[in-house]
Structure formats: C-alpha cells, structure tokens
Specification:
about 350 residues; 2 strands; mainly alpha
C-alpha cells in the first residue's frame, strides 16, 4: 500500500489563496455582471429569477492570484503559455456569456486552448503499455494520443453541460480537483497539481455565492476553465499510474453527460441545443430539492475521493474493484435522480 504523505505547504497555499480571492471577488464583480451578463429564465433553465452569470471570472482570479503567490513563495509554477491558455479559455467563455458564439468557433477555440498545455504531456498512459507492448508502437502512439485529446476536449464540454444547477459544479468537481491536486503534487511532484488544488479552492470560495439559491452563476467563463483544468488533471493522473483516481473522481459528471449525449444522438436530436435531460435536471423536475441533488452529487464526490486515496498504489485488481464499487453508487444516485419523489422515469 502506498503511504500517503501530508499535503505540502504549497498545496495549502494554492487552495487557500484561491478560495479567499474567489470568494472576495464575487461581490466586487456582481454590480458589473448584473449590467452586462444576466441569465434570463427560460423553459430549459433551473433558476426562477434572472441571475448574473460570469462568476467564472472570480474563479479565474482566485487561480491566477494563487499562482502568483506560489511564484512569490519560490514554488515551481507553470510555463506562461499554459497560464495564458487558462486565461484564454475563461475569456472565450465570458465572451460567450455575453454574446452567444457559433458552436463551430467555440469548439475550435476550445481545442486550441487545450492543445497548448496538452503538447507537453502528449504521451501514451503507461497503463496501456503495460496491457500490451503494441501501444508503444509509433502508429498506435499517435492514435492513442489523438483519441486522448478528443476525450479531453469532451471533458471540457461536458463540464459546461453539467453547469445547470445551483452548486452542482462546486459539489461535483471541487473535491476531485483537490484530491487530484494532492496526488499529483504530494505523490508525483507534478507542478500542474497546484493548479488543480487552486481550482478546487477557488470553486469552494465561489460556492459561497453559488449555493442554492444562487446569487451568481459561473457561466461559460467558469465551466470551460474548470473543464480544461479537470481534463488536464485527468490525463496527468493517467500518466502517473493513478488511473483509478482519474476515473473515480469525476465519474458522476462524466457518466451523466455522456449517457445523456448518447441518448440524444440515438433519438436524432440536435445535441448542441439546450435541454433538460441530464439526470440532475430530471431529479429537480421530478420534485427533488435543488440542495438535495447538488448535495448528493457532492456526497458521491467525497466517496470517490476516499476510494481514490485508499486504493492509490495498490495495484490493478484493487483499483478495478474500487471503480466497480463506486460506479454502482453512482448508478444508484442517477436512478434516484431519474425517479425523483417516486415518479416514473
């Protein structure tokens, strides 16, 4: 069993500074956002009154200030190109929050901002090579890395799709980002782990204002930023033999968004259009309180964190068992969401 060491001081610095700055930034941003970026109430929305969006700018501020604090403290920081990619995708999302951009332009820009940091980690996960030496062959390497990039781009987008309920991104993503930050930083010495820790802290700070009833939404500015950081953390966990954690930490949002997309594709629907078919949306529509749905999502995330830390370094069999066991909990939760208060699915 892998002996887990305490988080380094840099972890606490990143998460703590990001949380405080993000929480403090929101009230400063609110008057401005009320004037330029308000999410109106529609038939597909979960909120009942017009609410400012663009709170992802506060999340971004928390992360950036945390990175500056790390630099001032003499800790290793990201290359400026990677920091620019984080700022760039948040800016892209904020522009979309104010003026809806065509889907084709959004996806091209997202791919560009993902590619910048991905180029430095474009490798085949060692777990695949352990399964078969064929994955070490040049042609298969290219195929695996290309498919991996597409998968990470999907993580960026599905995070945006899952941002449709008060507090659900905070509950579903913050615990996993903090756990990923710990594993990558304390166990593997990956500098990007501090970005994940900062993102988790910034989400918690933002959550003070986003819990139901939300005073502000993240908007695309926040969901694309968190999606990008989650995608890169996921890939780095795979590259560092932490594949159980990679699949466990965000299994619920990954499953909900992917299953919903698959169903809509099978029905021939226009998948880029807004809808209310996610499990968490069904739960609210079937009478479950918003706080309960987001709270259960957070409870699952905490269970996934515990399982990820418990099986770290314990081998493939234990890791696979953990994934199966926690996946069953995820399935039960999604069934509860679909049934609501006893209503038929």
């Amino acid at each position: 069993m892998l002996a887990l060491s305490p988080p380094p001081s840099s972890f606490w610095l990143a998460a703590g500074v990001a949380a405080v700055v993000a929480c403090a930034a929101i009230p400063a941003l609110l008057p401005w956002l009320r004037s330029i970026a308000v999410a109106k109430v529609t038939a597909r929305s979960s909120h009942k009154v017009p609410t400012p969006q663009g709170g992802g700018l506060g999340v971004l501020a928390g992360i950036v200030v945390a990175l500056v604090a790390l630099w001032l403290a003499g800790k290793h920081v990201l290359p400026w190109t990677q920091v620019a990619a984080l700022i760039g995708i948040a800016a892209l999302g904020f522009v979309d929050d104010i003026h809806a951009l065509p889907a084709s332009r959004r996806i091209i820009a997202q791919a560009l901002f993902l590619l910048i940091p991905f180029l430095s980690m474009a490798q085949v996960p060692p777990g695949l090579v352990a399964l078969s030496p064929l994955f070490a062959q040049p042609v298969l390497k290219v195929i695996v890395v290309a498919l991996g990039f597409v998968g990470l781009l999907w993580i960026v987008n599905l995070t945006n799709f899952m941002d449709g309920l008060d507090g659900i991104i905070v509950a579903s993503y913050a615990p996993g980002l903090l756990a990923a930050g710990y594993l990558l930083t304390a166990i593997h010495g990956e500098p990007f782990g501090l970005v994940a820790a900062a993102a988790g802290g910034a989400l918690l700070g933002f959550g003070v204002w986003n819990w139901n009833p939300a005073k502000i939404f993240m908007g695309d500015a926040g969901s694309l930023l968190i999606g990008l950081i989650t995608a890169l953390a996921f890939w780095l966990l795979l590259l560092n033999h932490e594949w159980p954690a990679a699949f466990l930490l965000w299994l619920y949002p990954f499953a909900d968004a992917t299953i919903t997309l698959g169903r809509r594709l099978m029905r021939g629907e226009q998948v880029w259009q807004a809808h209310r078919q996610h499990a968490y949306q069904r739960g609210v529509d079937q009478g479950l309180p918003v706080k309960l749905v987001s709270g259960l999502s957070g409870l699952y995330a905490l269970i996934a964190v515990g399982a990820s830390l418990a099986v770290a370094g314990q081998g493939a069999l234990v890791g696979t068992g953990a994934i199966v066991g926690v996946a069953l909990i995820c399935v039960v939760m999604m069934i509860v969401f679909h049934r609501g208060r006893g209503a038929p699915a």
